[in-house]
Design brief:
The protein is mainly α. Helix content is 61%, strand content 0%. Keywords: Membrane, Transmembrane, Transmembrane helix.
Length: 136
């Protein structure tokens, strides 16, 4: 009850003083000046977008795709680089139980794991560069 009376008193007080305040009218060019200020504010906040993948990045992606497409079709036995054959005879002496002998992985799973690792590596490099630029 007391709170309602207090609210009524505040309401009456506010009405009394609002009536006493003179009404001000805006100047004739109020709208034009307001619109000019809005246009200036809008021009300040223009966001310049930046490409997500640079030209060097696109070049690397293009070369990677090209390599993935062309390397399997390489039919010549000649090579530009002569890699010596390595003999790992010492692996025959190590006896490892064949736990994974019956495990067979399909090509799809192998490719999925490979591309997951590739994308994980690319993301780590991208995020490292992003945070380095952000901290500078």
């Amino acid at each position: 009850m007391e709170e309602i009376n207090n609210n009524k008193e505040l309401d009456a007080f506010a009405k009394k003083y609002v009536k006493e305040i003179k009404m001000e009218s805006p100047s004739k060019d109020f709208t034009a000046s307001l619109m000019n200020k809005i246009v200036v504010e809008h021009q300040k906040s223009v966001f310049v977008s930046k490409e997500l993948i640079s030209k060097k990045g696109w070049f690397v992606i293009f070369l990677s795709v090209l390599a993935v497409v062309l390397i399997p079709f390489k039919s010549s036995e000649k090579s530009f680089i002569n890699i010596p054959k390595l003999d790992f005879y010492f692996f025959d002496k190590i006896q490892i139980p064949n736990f994974l002998d019956n495990l067979k992985v399909s090509n799809t799973v192998f490719y999925a794991i490979f591309f997951f690792g590739l994308m994980f590596f690319a993301q780590v490099v991208f995020l490292k560069n992003h945070f380095n630029k952000r901290l500078d």
